[in-house]
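**User:** My hope is that you can spare some time for a protein that puzzles me. As I understand it, each token names a local backbone shape. I would be glad if you read both lines and explained how they fit together. The protein I mean follows directly.
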Amino acid sequence: MQTLIMDKSDSFFEELVDKSYSQKPLIHLALAESKPTVSQSLIQEIKKDNRWVPDLCSNYQQLVQTITSQSSDLILLGKLEDLNWLEVCRRCLKQWQNLPIILLVDQIEVSDFFRDWAIARGVHDVVSIHPQNVHLFRKALIRNALKSTIQTSLKAQNISSGVVSENADSLTWEATLVALNRLTKYSSSYLGPLAIGNYWKKTHAGLVVLHPSLEYWKVDYQGQIICPFISEQIAPLNHEQLQDVQIWVRAFLKECERVIVDFSQILQSKSLSADVSKLISPVE
């Protein structure tokens, strides 16, 4: 017979905020925007994550100096005093070919035609910074900054090791997706799909700010997990991404243990796949 308990503590997320968060690298963002009201609004959003460091530039010369001195990871390209965005984009791409540029526009909606036209001219993304779309700005920032730093990190690791190979200790994105949904299937037989979906969603919402790579993963109301950006992933999850998923899984299992106290042990007693076992293993 299963032992049923309810844990009244709402502070279990606190123990998941470990030292590894403070050790994550800073992401320098060159914010090219000459209007103070706009730049201050964006900086306020950017600073909600203490890993993002905004460096404000109001003209092209300041932008060049900032990118050079701060080794910027990403350009947020709004309106500068002296040049239009097309010319800024052309010059930046000529000097820094691999530096991603997000074009910031003040329209409420960005048409597919304009987005495709701008991307064809070298920008990585077009994002509305209209006050109604602040939440979209933050999601785009997380997605693009994450992709940029991940690619840089992978290149650095490959160069330092002298080889280009998959991390044997990691998982591919496809394998991780399959493992997460197998965990949902195992868990649903004990607690029901609606409860499992709620636990996945609750823990994801509580962790995504501190572990933004979780932004890649989405959950429906029955606990089915998808990865909308999976087609963009070539390399396997790096150590940080895998660790973030493990932290999410750990939080999810803690939610399940509010009802079934020995739920993790029950799962581990089953014939789990190696990939699922890796996800529920202790975070290192």
Remarks:
- The chain has two domains: 25-161, 169-280.
- Residues 1-24, 158-167 have pLDDT under 50 and may be disordered.
